[in-house]
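Deliverable D5.2: sample structural annotation.
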Amino acid sequence: MTPLPLTPGQVSLDQLAEIYWTEAAISLDDACRPKVDAAAARIAQAAEGTEPVYGVNTGFGKLASHKIASKDTSTLQRNLILSHCCGVGPAVPRRLARLMMSLKLLSFGRGASGVRWELVELLQQMLARGVAPVIPAQGSVGASGDLAPLAHMTAVVIGEGEAEVNGTVMPGAEALKTVGLEPIQLGPKEGLAFINGTQFSTAFALAGLFEGWRSAQNALVISAASTDAIMGSTAPLQPEIHALRGHRGQIEAAAAMRATLDGSEIRESHRDGDTRVQDPYCIRCQPQVTGAAMDVIRQAAATLVIEANAATDNPLVLTDPDAIVSGGNFHAEPVGFAADMIALALSEIGAIAQRRIALMVDPTLSFDLPPFLTPEPGLNSGLMIAEVTTAALMSENKHLANPCVTDSTPTSANQEDHVSMAAHGARRLSRMVDNLNYILGIELLCAAQGIEFRAPLVTSKALNSVVGRLREDIPSLGDDRYLAPELETAKSLVESGAVLQAAALTMPELS
């Protein structure tokens, strides 16, 4: 695969999504090299000088007052990486490790980190040749950089740690050798440049963003199916209603639902003579809720694309004035806020979806659908407990949506006395997306069952295709059967994009 060419500082959300979804290798525009080289030369000069420069010829954190001799600066950087490899827990998924490496390259490419170009080349070659560092998922508090996870990533660069190549995990030095690469001895400040930064938190937040947006798109299609299943009204989807309010997400959500339901015989059958005046909020207010969540996700996206293009290590080599200055760009507060925003959106999309499921299984609210969507209730329980499962998942996501960014705690002997907690704020998004996709998958099972009970009336062309795709893997529910594998399959149809592909409609875009 040809590497994706990127210009540091100008990378788009679409390019970041391509890196995430396809695991594309990247190459930095050579135009950034002169600035990278100039910063590296400035760091080398400082390392030979007598003036203390943090992280170049001093210790780190609370040990910054300890001066380091120029002959020991390389050892200092190696010791830094090895001592900071204190991550625990499961390894991050391969595609996220690759995204972290790509984000670190983009940060280096801004020309303020002081690393040599050969390190940029090594990272690019590791991506191109399929070397993925093994990075434990836990251990960062999201300030002073994502220290532990980035140290594990960097360990492979110096021939330590572990990496995965072609599905096999091996020592870092062996992984490099397997693909014809060699480790590099770190120079002044280079270890610090690798581990100071927000690339772990940002990678996980971007993953939650991209996966969560796909879930939101699915929610529009599946909520339209639920509307038809309960013979709900499409009057609340009229364009002028949403134009009068003006929110982009709401307007687009209503439009997508209108397109999804267009041509439904079920809808046309009850335009006249329907005794119901209004549908419950979970049907009537779907654009207002899911659309608002989409707008929140987009706000988070704006923050994350800036962060992905940022130089976030410390100290930074400045050109105006010509100085090496210790600052705080490694503090992941913006990422933490963005992750919390995405979490709120995911929780609300799932909350209203769960209410639609509850509506469909309740014969007093579902407009004459059989209890729990089984053709022979009593003898069969149908989708009774599938609904209970969604209630459990909805509740779990509500708890997970509590803000993480407010949960600071002092670390490093009170030198790092306010931290962002962006790392686990971002990491929890993958769990929330999984929960949401289970909820949406079960909603799809219920909606398809409900639509089939409306026969001989048929739903719209788009929804008929969606139900047909579902039935390729999961038959209609008659007598009770072992459902757990089918819930997994329904979830996979949502997360893979198969539902959206079957609907074959233009859905709202993230950017």
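Annotation notes: The radius of gyration is 26 Å. The chain has a mean pLDDT of 94.
The annotation will be released with the project's public dataset once the embargo ends.
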